[in-house]
């Protein structure tokens, strides 16, 4: 999931991503530090062990979605976000495709390596606050994925994708104007009016001023990198 995020290239910020700043800061504050105030991959792993429902293992980290959302310690309570946002963060932080829908030491090692600018094996506060937000930048689209995966099979199929299109197309005429898309984008807390304009323009592939079914079909094919006619979370947030 570390490929360039398609949607993050469209928008640099969003209402949901405004959560990232406080979360990044509080996450840092909650981690144990070494005497110099730095953290290692082991200390990042130790932080995530707080979410394991069973007695945390001395060795292996394995946090599933139930751990993350509803354990005695859970992300929702720690960071004061709702259930769907918590579930989106869980998917965003499950970085290693081999352990999808688990957070393991493979994921915490990725986090540490991503933030460690100097290759010291340690991350300081400035590195953390500069780089960790980059791993969270797809959160708005993660929330959309959680909201519209109606059958909860961790895939967006054509019907579910068309449900999103119909949500954009408030008057049901088959074309999504900028005004319609802006209403969807802002009332759904995905981002600002300015960002809605950027996204609408990027998704209007034939440049006719509206998003229509042809644009939606083009977008679906672009996201569906393995051409199986289903959109998994890593496809949803990346272009391979």
UniProtKB/TrEMBL annotation:
Residues 1-15 form the signal peptide. SUPFAM superfamilies: EF-hand (SSF47473). Coiled coil: none annotated. The keyword RNA-binding does not apply. InterPro entries: EF-hand-dom_pair, EF_Hand_1_Ca_BS, EF_hand_dom. This is DgyrCDS11299. Keywords: Calcium, Signal. Pfam families: EF-hand_7. GO terms for molecular function: calcium ion binding. PROSITE patterns: EF_HAND_1, EF_HAND_2. The keyword Signal applies. Residues 156-191 form the EF-hand domain.
């Amino acid at each position: 999931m570390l490929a360039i995020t398609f949607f993050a290239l469209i928008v640099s910020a969003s209402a949901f991503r405004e959560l990232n700043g406080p979360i990044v800061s509080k996450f840092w504050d909650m981690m144990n530090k070494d005497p110099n105030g730095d953290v290692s991959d082991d200390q990042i792993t130790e932080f995530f062990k707080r979410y394991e429902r069973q007695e945390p293992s001395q060795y292996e980290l394995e946090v599933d979605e139930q751990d993350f959302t509803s354990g005695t310690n859970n992300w929702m309570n720690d960071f004061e976000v709702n259930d769907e946002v918590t579930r989106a963060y869980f998917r965003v932080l499950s970085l290693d495709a081999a352990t999808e829908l688990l957070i393991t030491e493979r994921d915490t090692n990725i986090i540490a390596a991503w933030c460690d600018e100097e290759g010291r094996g340690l991350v300081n506060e400035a590195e953390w606050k500069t780089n960790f937000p980059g791993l969270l930048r797809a959160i708005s689209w993660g929330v959309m994925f959680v909201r519209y995966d109606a059958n909860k099979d961790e895939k967006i199929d054509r019907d579910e994708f068309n449900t999103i299109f119909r949500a954009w197309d408030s008057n049901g005429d088959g074309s999504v104007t900028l005004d319609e898309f802006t209403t969807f984008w802002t009332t759904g807390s995905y981002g600002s009016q300015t960002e809605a304009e950027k996204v609408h323009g990027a998704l209007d592939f034939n440049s006719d001023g509206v998003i229509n079914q042809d644009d939606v079909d083009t977008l679906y094919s672009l996201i569906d990198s393995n051409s199986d006619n289903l959109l998994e979370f890593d496809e949803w947030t990346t272009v391979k």
